[in-house]
Structures are given as structure tokens and as C-alpha cells.
Design goal:
Length: 195
């Protein structure tokens, strides 16, 4: 057993992955590519009237023509943390003295939140677009590739903003291994698009 442990070579995360460098909002790979990421926040189009749905779809289709190249759309599941919500409900329940109907309602909400958090349906899916460019290998061209990639991310951001869908450019791709760090409340890792 000790011999096996001695034979295992210890390597760093950078040696194990294809990551060469991370500079603010882009990720460079060892095999000569540059990546950028855009998070698309949840938007339920089914809540809109049919005409509004078609209008948004037409707008997104028209805006996206010609900019869909070297692009991957993906989702990351993330467990929803309901602890602060449950604590808030319990605190409110304890403070409620006079209104017995409100107390019953709060008790029911506490039970529902406990059921939801203990079940397997407490996941949300975070949506992302990943875009990339191949680097040409010299400093001037690499700078231009980085600039073009950032402009493409901003184009996507403006496209979604035009139909009132919130997006943010992800500024620290290394955290993708830890979806809990992708919370929009943590603005340190995001450039926000406010409309």
C-alpha cells in the first residue's frame, strides 16, 4: 500500500487541466485557445402572451444572425440553498403573536420549504454561453483576438439586454469547477449588464 502511494505523482491543478492562464474575463489554454463566458439568467418566456413570445424570439433570432461561431451553450445544475429562507420563515413564525391565521400560513410555508429542500427537486440550472478563438501565436494578433472575443461577449450581452434578459460576463472562469461560487449576489466575479 505504501509503495502505491509513493508511486502516485503529485500534480497541480494547472498541470492536470489545459489552463495556461486566466486574465480577468478570459481563459487561455495550453493548446492555443482563448475562452470567454457569458451567464444568462433565468427567464420564463412561457409567462408572456403568445405575441410577446414571438416578438422576443424574432428579435433574438435577428440579433444573433452572424455572431454564432465557435459557441457552446451549456447549463450547470446547482442545488438551491433554502436555509436562509427557512430561517427567515421560522424567525417570522416565532415573532408572530397576534395573528393565528398568519401563523398557520407560515407553518405551512415552513413545511413546504423543508419538503423542497429534502427532496431531489431543489436544483436550478444556470445557463452559459462559452465562446472561443484560436490564438495566432504572436503578441499583436493575440491581443487582437482577445479584444475581438471580448467584443463578441458584449454583443451577446447587448442582444439579450435588448429583449430584457439579464446576462453577465463571467470574469473568473477557474471557479466553474465550483458552481456555488457563481451566485449573482457575489459581484466580485461578474461584470453586470444592467438595463
Amino acid at each position: 500500500m505504501e509503495k502505491i502511494e509513493q508511486d502516485v505523482k503529485k500534480i497541480t491543478a494547472n498541470e492536470f487541466t489545459n489552463v495556461k492562464d486566466i486574465k480577468k474575463d478570459v481563459l487561455y489554454t495550453k493548446d492555443g485557445y482563448i475562452f470567454g463566458y457569458l451567464r444568462i439568467f433565468y427567464f420564463n418566456i412561457e409567462l408572456l402572451a403568445e405575441e410577446e413570445q414571438r416578438a422576443k424570439e424574432k428579435t433574438l433570432t435577428a440579433l444573433s444572425k452572424g455572431i454564432i461561431e465557435n459557441l457552446v451553450y451549456f447549463t450547470l445544475p446547482r442545488e438551491v440553498d433554502l436555509d436562509s429562507y427557512k430561517n427567515y420563515l421560522e424567525k417570522t413564525y416565532k415573532q408572530e403573536i397576534e395573528n393565528s391565521q398568519k401563523k398557520l400560513f407560515l407553518n405551512d410555508m415552513i413545511r413546504q420549504s423543508i419538503d423542497l429542500s429534502s427532496g431531489s427537486d431543489n436544483f436550478e440550472h444556470q445557463h452559459f454561453i462559452k465562446i472561443w478563438r484560436e490564438l495566432k501565436g504572436n503578441i499583436r494578433d493575440d491581443y487582437q483576438d482577445e479584444s475581438e472575443l471580448k467584443n463578441k461577449l458584449r454583443e451577446f450581452q447587448q442582444m439579450f439586454s435588448a429583449v430584457k434578459i439579464e446576462t453577465v460576463i463571467y470574469t473568473n472562469p477557474i471557479l466553474f469547477g465550483h458552481p456555488e461560487n457563481l451566485d449573482p449576489a457575489d459581484q466580485a466575479g461578474w461584470i453586470s449588464d444592467s438595463y
